[in-house]
Amino acid sequence: MTTPSLLPERARILIVRLRRLGDLLLLTPALRAIRQTYPNAQIDVLVLEGFHAALLDNPDIDHLIVVRRGQLGWLAAMLACARGRYHAVLDYQSSPRSLWFILAAHAKVRLGWRKRGMRDWVYTRHAPGWDEPIYVARNFVRFAALIGIPSTSDLRLAIAMTAADRQCTEDMFKRAGIDPGRPIIALSVASQVDRKRWPPERYAELADSLIRANLGQLVFTNGPGEIGQVRAVVDRMREKPALWDYGSTTLAGLASIYEHCHLWIGNDGGAKHVATAAGCPTLVIIKAGDERFWTDTTDPSQIAVCDPQPELRDPNSLEGITVMQVLDVATRAIDRLRSTRRVPQR
């Protein structure tokens, strides 16, 4: 049985997770659990520039050490690690990239994933199961048990939003004629990884079907450089979505959009975790088997749609997932949300 006495009450703790947005949001339950166990500790997080937006204004973090681009940025971050005089470093990355920061911090307690590689010698304690099919947020909390963090069922993801973010969304929806008294469905059709991208023609057919069935008003969302993928879907549609080309927004602004929606549908990726953090129920179109990592299967608000017969096709393809299959699951999700009054009744 682990105990919080492993570290002093006012311990200085460095947490390393360099990337990506989804992984950083999935880290937030572990950050909350560490803060609850060590309320007087200094908790710093080391993260790459750009991805740090996921943790801005997180109440469980004292300082974000942002690794800027270029050699000077990396050297500055290593120097910050060396000056931190940390009692413990939790290396959630455990990769060749993170190795140098762990060495620079020179902490007495160094935690990393056991990967059976030459880097394992760097760590004083090893967490098992870095690639086990466990919801990543739950696995991140399990990792923290090595410094006495108790198991928790609180796996809520966290992302900070301001009143200005929410007002911007409300104004944008009003200009688009979106009725807050009717269900609003967010569609995230873009992906930077080809194998995670459901075909645009299927998204177009799904979107038309959702509108014709009067299941909700559709809002297409996108990240930087992804508007072309959204356009490829909208151009194939016969019906008109409520909103799609709204310009650029911050990560907090995207979270606010999802907070105002009643269901999120999209590809496996960071946007799914932004929606979860914003409290929006999700329906992710995902490779069979991957849902065990990226959805909390104990949470009915997180739904995964996979190929029912993946053994018959390319294991990295989403071609076996049909429009009718996704539409059926989406319809049942909306009906269930209506029954619990989580979406408007009309």
What is the strand and helix layout of this fold?
Blueprint: E1 12-16, H1 21-37, E2 42-48, E3 63-67, H2 71-83, E4 88-91, H3 96-105, E5 109-113, E6 125-127, H4 136-144, H5 163-175, E7 184-188, H6 200-212, E8 217-220, H7 227-234, H8 251-259, E9 263-267, H9 270-277, E10 282-285, H10 291-294, E11 302-305, H11 323-339
Parallel strand pairs: 1-2, 1-4, 2-3, 4-5, 5-6, 7-8, 7-9, 9-10, 10-11
Written account of the structure:
This protein has 346 residues and is an alpha/beta fold. It folds into two domains: 144 residues, 3-Layer(aba) Sandwich (Rossmann fold); 171 residues, Glycogen Phosphorylase B (Rossmann fold, 3-Layer(aba) Sandwich). It is 35% helix and 15% strand. It has eleven helices and eleven strands. The strands form two sheets. Strands 3-2-1-4-5-6 form a six-stranded parallel sheet, with helices on both faces. Helix 3 links the parallel strand 4 and strand 5. Helix 1 runs parallel beside helix 4, helix 6 packs across helix 7 and helix 6 crosses helix 11. It is globular, with a radius of gyration of 21 Å. The relative contact order is 0.12. The mean pLDDT is 95.
